[in-house]
Amino acid sequence: MTEYHIKGNNALFGELKLQGSKNASLPILAATLLTGSRSVIHNCPDLSDVRQSINILSSLGCECSFENNTAIIDSSNADGVMIDDELMTSMRSSIIYLGAILARNNRAVLSYPGGCELGPRPIDLHLSAIRRMGAEIDDTRGHIECSAGNGLTGCEIVLPIASVGATENIILAASLAKGRTIIRNAAKEPEIVDLASFLNSCGAEISGAGEVTVIIDGVKNLHGTEYSVQPDRIAAATYLCAAAATGGNIRVNDVVSSHLLPVLEYYSNAGCKMNICESSIELSAPKRLMPVGVIKTREYPGFPTDAQPLFLAMSSVSKGTSIFEENIFNSRYRYVDGLNKLGANISVHDSVAVVKGTDTLYGAKVEVTDLRGGAALIIGGLCAQGETVVCDSGHISRGYEKISENLNDLGAEITRY
Ligand code: EPZ
Q: In sequence order, what DSSP letters do the residues of 261-285 get, joined into one string?
């Protein structure tokens, strides 16, 4: 168990270089399987999910190295088709290997990724899309066995929900399929665009990524490439919320500011002054924040569900009431108990959380329930008087590279045990 001991009540000041995106690097790493050669991926954040992804690639026969945020993956001999249970369940997004392994080897045997701390994580959309592309799937014996005979075939797929993971899986599967695949109601998140850009730089023919319709013309082969993963927009939002909540002033560098458009107005609502350039964002917070107003999570370009806990933590020390509505995951308020233990005044009714801002939070021992909820508790601890101990069984290191070091550089006092 990792513990973050936080001496709170210090405003954050200074500059920060942002990490690469977790949710972009994971599908890009899976995509290296399709190339059958060597790819060099820069700006890969050093996170446990990234390391697990590299373990999966190694177990499938890739030669991998990962140093100084550069992953080198040679998938020349990656003829493995099976991911063992432990690797599969250690990372919730391991299901994106379904499309990648099938595209590469026409067969895949995976266990279920399972439910998770955000509630059930169904994969029905992934399976039905892969079936439509011609794969036979037997999921009746506790694991998923897929075979695609001589390969997958392109087709039109209309997603009933704009699922990020399902869109990625289809893009992976379709890149080496016969003919054209059209995804309608595709997810539009920046991470989809990064995956498509990586694959296109390997010779794929994908157009429309980031829009509602994505078209993939399957090609016979892909080649390796050198690529840099986009910056992590949710990590950027995390540091900005921490600065806002503590009444600080920070600049986040190496960001793609346009990726944060869905959240930026809420910092202004809270009374923060923003200086937004193409690749940096500076935030200067008032001593006491105003309420953010009403935040409803939606698919991109709506307000991201991953930023909901961060803004909720920040709102818990504002001067007034804010309302949150969670529309993507049905169990994404579990961390709220921890904030209330610190003295926040938050009540949850189904998908709605009502946050009555308080003057001060008070240090206490709290437990992390999930990755972004963990970041919310750290933000709470940074605002609290006295010491907060955030106990974490490994969620935070799934998504944040050097979070305590980064915050300490900005003036926080966090010791990690
Ligand atoms: C991705 O998860 C992200 N994970 C999540 O980030 C993020 O919260 C989520 O997208 C939404 O933005 C990664 O990229 C690794 P979805 P994903 O499929 O792909 C339902 C973080 O903190 N659904 O877009 O799993 C599903 O239950 C993480 O970094 C089905 O019903 O999300 C959810 O309600 C947490 N059937 C909705 O769609 C399916 O087959 C959106 O999920 C698939 C999804």
A: HHHHHHHHHTT-EEEE-SSEEEEE-
Q: Report the chain's terminal Cα–Cα distance, integer Å.
A: 9
User: Which tokens sit at 411?
Assistant: 């003036």
Predicted TM-score (pTM) of the model is 0.97
Cβ 200 vs Cβ 227: under 8 Å: no
Q: What distance in angstroms lies between residue 164's CA and the mean position of ligand 1's atoms?
A: 6
pLDDT along the chain (417 residues), means of 10: 95 97 98 97 96 96 98 97 88 90 95 71 92 93 89 97 97 98 98 98 98 98 98 98 98 98 98 97 97 97 98 97 96 96 97 96 96 97 97 94 97 96
CATH of 22-228, one of 3.65.10.10, 3.40.50.720, 3.30.420.10, 2.60.300.12: 3.65.10.10
Domain 2-18+232-416 has CATH 3.40.640.10: no
The amino acid that residue 221 corresponds to is N
Rounded to 10 deg, the angle between the 233-245 and 261-269 helix axes is 10
For residue 116, indicate whether it is catalytic: yes
Phi, psi for 115 (deg, rounded to 5): -80, -175
Tell me, yes or no, if the two domains 2-18+232-416 and 22-228 fold the same way. yes
CA 257 to CA 261: how far, in whole Å?
7
Residues with CB under 6 A from ligand 1: 22-23, 26, 93, 121-126, 161, 163-166, 187, 191, 304-306, 328-329, 371-372, 399
- Structural domain boundaries in the chain: 2-18+232-416, 22-228
Contact 314, 308 (CB under 8 A): no
Buried b (16+ CB within 10 A) or exposed e, 240-259: bbbbbbbbbbbbbbbbbbeb
